[in-house]
Amino acid sequence: MIRNQQEEVQALQDTIYVIGGKWRLPIINSICNGNKRFREIERSIPGITTRMLSRELKDLEMNKLITRTVYDETPVLVEYESTDYCKSFGPVILAMIAWGKEHKKKIIQKS
Amino acid sequence: MIRNQQEEVQALQDTIYVIGGKWRLPIINSICNGNKRFREIERSIPGITTRMLSRELKDLEMNKLITRTVYDETPVLVEYESTDYCKSFGPVILAMIAWGKEHKKKIIQKS
DNA sequence: ATAGCTGGTATACTCTGTTATACTGGTTAC
DNA sequence: GTAACCAGTATAACAGAGTATACCAGCTAT
After folding, report:
1. CB contact under 8 A, A103 and B20
2. According to DSSP H, which parts of A33-89 are helical?
3. Which of A94, B54, B57, B77 has its CA 20 to 30 A from that of A61?
4. pLDDT, tens digit (0-9, with 9 covering 90-100), for B47-60
């Protein structure tokens, strides 16, 4: 029981460490939803700046959560895609989207 | 489809706004697990400082996610408890714990 | 030609979450 | 009496996440 709890706090903190911050999950979600192009992802996430997107994409690529492919066509074409590992965040993202929707319902009810 | 996606990004960002940061979810988790006392909660979360715990507890109380009850015994006794609203984070927390455990498995396999 | 798209980078700055350390006042235990 | 527990607060400082704004080269459509 006690041992179990310690293990779970650890797991929780590990997860927060990986997907922490304001933008990681929205970016992962966007790419998992099929957005591949830089500007496409940018437009799909309200409020994000090119700088933050650029930085986070690099980070996610380094951590093997997404792949970046440059097609040497003209004009040059860059595509981001999620790896299988990245897709393992699916349940987390879905749970958070579900919570956010319920939350909004409650806010609306009150007003 | 497109409308749906916009709604979901919004919901996701709303959720991140509420439970964002390094400590909120671990604290909520700890209290939901039955930890009631300040030092008890503190000890249950590796790395947290009294200052951060104090601040986050105040914040969570203001947002009606937890209740703070002072029992005027001697010595004074303070108990934190989660509200029903707080418990609605259950699925999110469970999903994140599950991810963290899987993640650790993979790390161990590789080494 | 000029406005707009693509995929970004550069610079500078803010802000606040987070850490570190110390301290308080009361109670209990040895 | 002194050490340790409780429930925190005070002060200072830092690091880096995040913002704002401008800019670049290359291409396209009008």
Report:
1. no
2. 38-44, 50-62, 84-87
3. A94
4. 999 999 999 999 99
